[in-house]
């Protein structure tokens, strides 16, 4: 069954006979793609995925170091604040910066440890999920 549509100097033929068995054509392709994704997932997770995640974590650590300005505080540790060059001004500015460096260093250390725990969690997650699925399936 074909229909013809005439539009000015142009004939368009529309064929309504279509393949009714698309499932049989595309099912093996879809199953192969799904099988490949299952096989490829661990390779991607521990190679490209891990590299991308690690670069993101190390970039976040670098940005945190910059936002806490630890380098600036360390560089200016012995520089007097507000241009006060007397003993009291130097002493106050030294201890003020020293405590700032200590507290900011502790905050940076916690942030870095948490970020490294995220990397470790990334590495442990797939075996952990497989182990938990195994435990769940073996319960009676």
Structure description:
It is a single chain. By secondary structure, the chain is mainly alpha-helical. It is built from four helices and two strands, in the order ββαααα. The chain has a two-stranded antiparallel ribbon with strand order 1-2. α1 packs across α2 and α2 (48-68) packs antiparallel against α4.
Secondary structure topology:
Elements (H helix, E strand, L loop, with lengths): L1 E6 L2 E6 L6 H25 L1 H21 L1 H6 L11 H51 L3
Antiparallel strand pairs: 1-2
Helix pairs in contact: 1-2, 2-4
Q: Look at the helices and sheets and give the structural class.
A: mainly alpha
Beta-strand percent range? 5-15%
Number of helices: 4
Choose one word for the global shape.
Answer: elongated
Radius of gyration: 32 Å
Query: What integer is the average pLDDT?
Result: 85
Helix percent band: over 70%
Poorly predicted residue ranges: none
What summary fits the major beta sheet? 2 strands, antiparallel
Strand order of the largest sheet: 1-2
């Amino acid at each position: 069954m074909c229909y013809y549509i005439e539009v000015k100097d142009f004939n368009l033929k529309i064929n309504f006979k279509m393949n009714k068995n698309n499932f049989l054509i595309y099912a093996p392709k879809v199953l192969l793609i799904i099988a490949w994704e299952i096989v490829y997932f661990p390779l991607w997770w521990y190679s490209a995925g891990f590299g991308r995640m690690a670069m993101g974590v190390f970039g976040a650590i670098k940005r945190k170091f910059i936002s806490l300005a630890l380098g600036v505080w360390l560089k200016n540790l012995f520089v007097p604040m507000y241009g006060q060059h007397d003993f009291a001004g130097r002493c106050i500015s030294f201890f003020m910066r020293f405590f700032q460096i200590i507290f900011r260093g502790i905050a940076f250390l916690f942030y870095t440890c948490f970020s490294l725990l995220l990397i470790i969690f990334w590495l442990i997650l797939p075996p952990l999920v497989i182990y938990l699925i195994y435990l769940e399936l073996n319960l009676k």
